[in-house]
Write a structure and sequence with these properties.
Strand order of the largest sheet: 5-6-7-3-8-9
Largest sheet: 6 strands, mixed
CATH superfamily of the largest domain: P-loop containing nucleotide triphosphate hydrolases
Strand content: 25-35%
Radius of gyration: 23 Å
CATH class of the largest domain: Alpha Beta
Number of helices: 10
Structural class: alpha/beta
Number of strands: 13
Distance between the termini: 41 Å
Helix content: 25-40%
Amino acid sequence: MTTPLVEASGLTKRFGEFEAVRGIDVRVERGEAFGFLGPNGAGKSSTMRMISCTSPRSGGDLRVLGMDPDRDGPRIRARIGVVPQQDTLDNELTVRQNLEVYGRYFGLSRAAVRAKAVELLEFAQLTERASSEVEPLSGGMKRRLTIARSLVNEPEVLLLDEPTTGLDPQARHLLWDRLFRLKAEGVTLIITTHYMDEAEQLCDRLVVMDGGRVAAEGSPAELISRYSTREVLELRFPPGHQSADRLEDLAERVEVLPDRVLLYTRDGEAALAAAQERGVRPVSSLVRRSSLEDVFLRLTGRTLVD
């Protein structure tokens, strides 16, 4: 067994009387992409701040790169990279200067940071914008620059908090490609995201958090197999006309929503044929594979949490 890069046992974070993280156990192995999923207020960001040594834990045990963040925070921070949820670029500097100045914080020589900046600009596909100011860059460019900046110190672990929030599909897929390249090069990724397709694409393993606790853990495929079915049949009805009458025994689980009924089943086409034989006439129907979003909503609910 190799030593995990991040290991937490009974990890707790309190803010006064409020307990944001309630005794979670987490183990992140070298070279994997590990995800934290959960609704707002689930404790994901609080956990990430403890791992990044920017917020002390309230209880439990935490080791990052084999060290204790309470005692070895500076040594840990020197070996990790952090991509915050909001870009914190220096708008008064050029794209290249953002990389070079940040590299100096880690004690790199001027020659070393200049060479590293060239490498990272190419990695982020920003070479042609090297002399541009930051402010007019697109959201995708700023995000790529933020990730490039986090790699100046060649981190062993890269923490990404909602890395593609607000980006268009093209920018998201380009960013995914950059992250796949980093993982292939041996960088361990720890990601929080609200995008279920992103978690399925990027994460080898993940935990679903809810109310400060871990509700489930496993690979995306394992979680779908454990908490959902192979397929989902969606039957859409006019508002107020949907019900589970005549459908309950056609699936392992039936969920009634304001505009549709979801049937979780191994064979969606067979369930649809059986429903039609019973006189059920939806406005439209769709058979799709079960997804991580189905798991997420089953574990955390559909109610909005502020």
